[in-house]
Amino acid sequence: MIVRSANACIVGAILLLTFSVASAHHGDAGRYDEAITRISGTVVALQLINPHSIIIVDVPDESGQAVRWQVEISNATGLSRIGWTRETLRPGDPVTMAGRAVKSGAPYINLSENSRLARGDTCEELFHSGLGSGREPDYPPLSCEQ
Predict the structure, then answer these.
(1) For residue 78, is it within any domain?
(2) pLDDT band at 22, cuts 50/70/90?
(3) Can you give the residue range of the structural domain that contains 116?
């Protein structure tokens, strides 16, 4: 009887642990627009962190006022595999990117699907979804034209 109780506790603990690990990475179904949004601005900071790195960018609105956007991109390990370092983007660097913005209208964009990021001054593409896998996004390469 004690063995059965112990086994039941072990199985319960394993199921609880499996559920908590499985739910740790959330899906984004319904969170982002399907349409691709293009923004251009100036880098404020690059945060190479896990599970998703963040680029903070000031983007001018219609009146010329800076709006601070958060740009969610791949994790630090994935970016380092394609050559990114803390020097890849520095404060003051101009950038242009295309990705999926949140439906809420908040200044937040995700670069995980059908996305691109390029330097605004040279048009050098620094990232696109599928980079390293040989897959190109459907969104065309970015131009430097504003």
Answers:
(1) yes
(2) very low
(3) 37-128
Residue 132 gets the label, from left (phi > 0), alpha (psi -120 to 50) or beta, of left
User: What six digits make up the tokens of 6?
Assistant: 């112990």
Say how far apart CA 141 and CA 79 lie, in whole Å. Answer: 19
CA–CA dist 14, 17 (Å, integer): 5
Q: Work out the number of other CB atoms within 10 angstroms of the CB of residue 79.
A: 20
**What is the tens place of the pLDDT at every residue in 36-57?**
999 999 999 999 999 999 999 9
Q: Which of 40, 25, 50 is nearest to 119 (CA)?
A: 40
C-alpha to C-alpha distance for 40 and 84, rounded to whole angstroms = 20
Q: pLDDT digit string (tens) for 107-144?
A: 999 998 889 999 999 999 999 887 766 778 888 888 76
Residue in the structure block whose two tokens are 């696109």: 128
Q: Is the pTM of this model over 0.70?
A: yes
Q: Does residue 89 lie in a domain region?
A: yes
